[in-house]
Structure formats: structure tokens, C-alpha cells
Amino acid sequence: MRILLDEQLPRRLARQLANHQVRTVQQQGWAGLRNGELLRRAGATGFEIFLTGDRNFQFQQNLAGSPLCAIVLIARSIKIEDLLPLVPLLREAIRDIRPGEVLQVGVP
User: Residue 41: phi, psi to the nearest 5?
Assistant: First the structure.
């Protein structure tokens, strides 16, 4: 899967998804773009999953009909040590998610 890591997430998270092609927003040169434009570019360039820590994402964006899907990580913080325990659930979500869906992974 081609996964785009949102700019607020730690880059080290990509190492936990070694079986996938993971790029960061910064690596793509898209830092600072609003979510709508960011998602448009991600879908147009073949990304399949947008990974974010923005808890409001599903209320702000509608991916219905999009080739892209999104996974929202819900943890105490977006520090790598708080996100690492979510990795097994994240891998399951990556396996199961479908285009246009937004899933939350973690504890509310």
C-alpha cells in the first residue's frame, strides 16, 4: 500500500510500516497545504491511505467516492512512544480499510 503520513506525525512511525511504501507530507513537498488540497494531490499521485493524528479529520473531510482512505490515530499524544502501542491495530486497519473510508485506531 502507498501510505502518506500527515505532517504532524513522527517520521519514525514509517519504520513500523516497512511492508508498505510510506512517504511523509514533507518528503512530498506538501507541508503547509490544507487538507482538501493535500488529499486531492495524494489521491492523484496514487496514494491509497492518508495516516493522520487529527481527531477532527472525519468531521472535516468527506472521502466518499475518493480512491483514498484515511486512518486517524487516537492516542494520548502524537509522540512516537504513545503511537507505537497502536501499531498492531494500525496494521489490521491497513489490511481491512477500503477506498473512501475513514477509520479510527486507538483509544478515544
Answer: -65, -40
